UniProtKB/TrEMBL annotation:
Lineage summary: Bacteria, Pseudomonadati, Pseudomonadota, Betaproteobacteria, Burkholderiales
Gene3D superfamilies in the cross-refs: N-(1-d-carboxylethyl)-l-norvaline Dehydrogenase, domain 2 (1.10.1040.10), NAD(P)-binding Rossmann-like Domain (3.40.50.720)
Domain Mannitol dehydrogenase N-terminal: residue ranges: 35-284
Annotated organism of origin: Rugamonas rubra
Mannitol dehydrogenase C-terminal domain mapped to chain residues: 293-481
Name of the molecule in the record: Mannitol 2-dehydrogenase
GO molecular function, one term: oxidoreductase activity, acting on the CH-OH group of donors, NAD or NADP as acceptor
Amino acid sequence: MGNDNPTIALNQAALGHLPDGVAGPAYARQDVARSIVHIGVGGFFRSHQAVYLDQLLHLPGQTPWGYCGVGLLPHDAAMRDAMRAQDCLYTVVERGAQGESARVIGSVLEFLYAPDDAEAVLEKMADAGTRIVSLTITEGGYYINQGTGEFDAAHADIVHDLAHPRTPRCSFGYLAEALQRRRERGLAPFTVMSCDNLQNNGDVMRKMLLAFTQLRDPGLSAWLEQHCAFPNSMVDRITPATTDEHRALVRQRFGLADAWPVMTEPFLQWVVEDHFPGGRPAWELVGAQMTDDVLPYEKMKLRLLNAGHQSLCYIGMLFGYEFAHQAMDDADIRQLFSDMMDKEVTALLPLVAGIDLADYKRTLIERFANPAIRDQLARIGTEGSARIPKFVLPSVREQLERGGPIKLLSFTVACWFRYLNGSSEQGVAMPLNDPYAARLRELALLGGADAGPLLSMRELFGELSEQPRFVAQVGDALARLYRDGARAALRHALAAPSELAG
């Protein structure tokens, strides 16, 4: 399909005459219940959880399950406008070695924008028909002090929501107020399902929400502790941020005018702890793996894929690359990623049923190197203050306990520190999207080649700030990045016979 074909504006009326080769919902969307509220309708949710449910809705008897999307943040206004104009339909384009395929997803039936009408969002969540509230709010959205692992009760969002419970700003405030209303009405709590890249994400959500509600109303907290379920899950699908280039591709290649399409890879994985007292969709019928223990899968994915992304994105941006496949085309960066997995992480991972680790790592290299995805390094590098502590530092801690190697893990941290000063080696500005952005930039510029100021952020590094081996390794790598340049520093890290080499 090319430019000569007429372009169809994507909406419900268009489903009867989608362009040739574009699949769409074959179920009656008007019959689907809006029983799952999802907070954070970004690209990943729309390429992952919404795709699973769209597949499931094509099977008989599944209409009790559909999504109502919720945007809480001011920047979600653009998503509101796009989704409502298109009756919440959008296109997912899979891009792989075999080419591209497009499919219109219909499992999101409604979109609520909280800054327009907080009460509508609260009442939707409090409604008896809502059985699950799921979330993709990024790793930084859980108000965790990374150094202690405890709830950050001093955060401005939390302070506001405790003071104004009926007009909340953040996800915790919305969850607590909606659950309080259900409690008052004699309704069971909905299941709270985190779909973010956190180890034990359900357990983390439970701990943080109970800490928040303990401050708000101990009675509510006790009720949730007794009755509310927080299943763990592991999610995986590389999904770059949508760009104007993507919109143009959908228009020219597939003949659809879509304001917010999603580009993604063919790979798709979801492992879910099967703990849903209020019921759940039969996700296992469309390829999700329901299990009693998500942790082995989660640990493997976070320590290899997510930490691997951190290993290549900052050094890649320092080299002036824009996309993940460009970084993977660089032999030194590819070796950094591969050696970090093989030499410093694999030994820490448990055996995972049905998974060949060597094959999994080979697949990661292929996925990261996929040129069709064009995954932005800047996207991968967002919220480093949450991602480095979640994905990289746990392996550092385990290796320190066993006396194992940490050189490449430490080099990854040093590359993040160097990135934080804001300019690549070519003098190109590097974007910093992080809740700690101002402080990180200030400390990076203050310290320069000295890692001490950044390592002193105990809310990120905790006791690692005082671990001599880690401090020495990060300090040496950062000094080399400034003194010798990124290429020489990387080659030194790869060539040194041990992490204690000078």
